[in-house]
Structure formats: structure tokens, C-alpha cells
Amino acid sequence: MRKLALPVVLLLAALVALSHAFPQQEHNTQIGKTFNQDALKEEDRGLKRSKQSKKESVCGEDEYLHGEHCCKMCPAGTSVKEGCVTPHKDSICKSCIQGQDYTTGPNGLPNCVSCQKCKAAAGKRMVSECTITKDTVCKCQAEKFCPRNHPCEVCKWCKKCPEGQEVKRPCTATTDTGCGSIPAIDHVVPLTNSTSE
User: Fold this and answer.
1) DSSP assignments along the chain, one per residue
2) Which of 2, 152, 161, 182 is 20 to 30 A distant from 142 in Cα terms?
3) How big is the CA angle at 107 (ends 70 and 77), to the nearest 5 degrees?
4) What's the burial of 73, exposed, middle or buried (CB within 10 Å: 0-12/13-18/19+)?
5) Over the stretch 115-133, which tens digit does the pLDDT of each residue have?
6) pLDDT tens-digit profile of 52-95?
7) How big is the chain by its Cα radius of gyration, in Å?
8) Would you call 91 exposed, middle or buried from its count of C-beta atoms within 10 A (0-12, 13-18, 19+)?
9) pLDDT digits 0-9 by tens, 144-188
């Protein structure tokens, strides 16, 4: 009987340890998500589309969850003024304001997204104005840059090549100046014709 009790005790101890390990792992995963705002926004959009209510199945690709039922999304350039009363029907949409806010595609947003401002103090200039379907496009001013694929709030000054180096790659709105050594120039001493007299 004692031989059987020891394996049972070990098995129970392992099960208790596992039950404590998995909730902690789930908790750690949730903590990691809080630091990634983009993941949270995407997760929120996904939940609105796929969340099941007591009465309904999953919302369709062109729908969002409004209360306990799905409504058709508003088109780009608009946001939801009032959700639908009857499931799977159109919402009442309101237009975004030109130059003030926008939405880029079908959505269930209660408000349009504010247009970004190209702040001169941050070294930026406007390339194209905000429309109701597209955000403002900003670029760095001359002699300033923001690295490609890295969102930046403030443009950085382009590097000046130090003495003894030359510009190998000029600064652009997305890349810094590339400097390199100046190639050595061989000095040629001209031969003079010397005539002996």
C-alpha cells in the first residue's frame, strides 16, 4: 500500500504545481500586452468583430458589435452617430470634418480620428493636408531626418561630416548623412625640362 501512496502523492503535487504555473503564465502574458498599445487596439477591434453575445453569432467582416448585436460599419470618412436598432442593419453615420479628423476605412468608431499636426518646432513640414479619409502627411524640414520605419515626434539634425571626411551619402528626410574618408591624392611633381648650357 505504501508503494502506491508515494506515486499518488507525487502526481498530486505535480498537478498542484501545474495549476499554479498556468494562471501565472496567463497573467504575465496579459502584463506584456499592456505595454503594446498597437496590440491592444488591434485586439479591441478583433474583439468587437468576433465577440459573441447571448443572442448572436460572430459579427461579419463588415460589422461591429453594438450592445448585444452586430451593426454594419460606417464607410471611410465617417464614424458612427447611432448604432443600428435591428441586428445586421446600417448604423446612422456622421461625416468627418475636412482638415480636422478622418477615418481610413470601414469602422464602428464613435468619433473620427484627429488629424496629426506637422509641428515646425519638431522640425516637421506638411507634405499633404488631412482629408476625411487620410491623415496629414508630415516630413522633416531641410537638413533634418527621421529614420525610415521608426515613428518619431521630433526630427533630428543631419550629421555634419567631421574634418578629414566627406559626404558619401547626403541626408534625406529618412536617412542621416553618411560620411567617409577622403581618398588620398597622390601629389605629382611636374618634370621640368632642364637644359644644360
Assistant:
1) -HHHHHHHHHHHHHHHHHHHHHHHHHHHHHHHHHT-HHHHHHHHHHHHHH---SS--PPPTTEEEETTEEEEPBPTTEEEEE--SSTTSBPEEEEPPTTTEE--SSB--SSPEEPP---GGGTEEEEE--BTTB--EEEEPTTEE--TT---SSPEEPPPPPTTEEEEE---SSS--EEEEPPP-PPPPPP------
2) 182
3) 140
4) buried
5) 999 999 999 999 999 999 9
6) 444 445 899 999 999 999 999 999 999 999 999 999 999 999 99
7) 32
8) buried
9) 998 887 777 899 999 999 998 999 999 998 899 999 988 876 666
> How confident is the model at residue 189, as a pLDDT?
61
Indicate the burial class of 134 (C-beta count within 10 angstroms; 0-12, 13-18, 19 or more): middle
* Beta strands 156-157 and 69-72, pairing class: unpaired
